[in-house]
Design brief:
By secondary structure, this protein is an alpha/beta fold. The protein is built from three helices and seven strands. 30% of the residues lie in helices and 17% in strands. Keywords: Cell membrane, Membrane, Protein transport, Transmembrane, Transmembrane helix, Transport.
């Protein structure tokens, strides 16, 4: 006796990819939100070396002082008197970040002190000066 199969279409067994794609997109959003973006200063400086230099964990705002005394923030040249306003604007974006001054080793100390004064007037007390480690 022969059995007759009905004309039903057999469904192919497959893996549903929708839950995996949801997890991938959620992880992508998580990593984008938790990433700390560093604002680069805009120029390369020849940093002085120090044997006591150490790495700062959070240095989100970079201010560069060039050899000629020019001040750079956010990849553009600014006046020393405009440092305070720019720091306040960047601190509004990332209030927990520290400020790192990247001063050229041949930069005038007076310009670096003026920049530090402007940063302190913006309400930032955690200021670091970038250096390369000798040891």
């Amino acid at each position: 006796m022969k059995r007759r199969y009905s004309a039903e279409i057999e469904e192919e067994a497959g893996i549903d990819m929708t839950p995996m794609l949801d997890i991938v997109f959620i992880m992508l959003i998580f990593f984008i939100v938790t990433t700390s973006f560093v604002k680069e200063a805009g120029i390369e400086v020849n940093r002085p070396s120090a044997s006591t230099a150490h790495t700062v964990a959070k240095g989100n705002i970079m201010v560069a002082v060039g050899k000629a005394g020019d001040v750079w923030m956010d990849k553009r040249r600014i006046d020393v008197d405009a440092v305070r306003a720019n720091i306040e604007r960047m601190r509004a974006e990332s209030p927990e970040g520290a400020v790192v001054i990247q001063a050229d080793q041949d930069a005038a100390a007076g310009v670096v002190v003026k920049v530090m004064d402007q940063i302190r007037m913006a309400g930032v007390q955690n200021i670091s000066i970038a250096a390369t480690n000798k040891g």
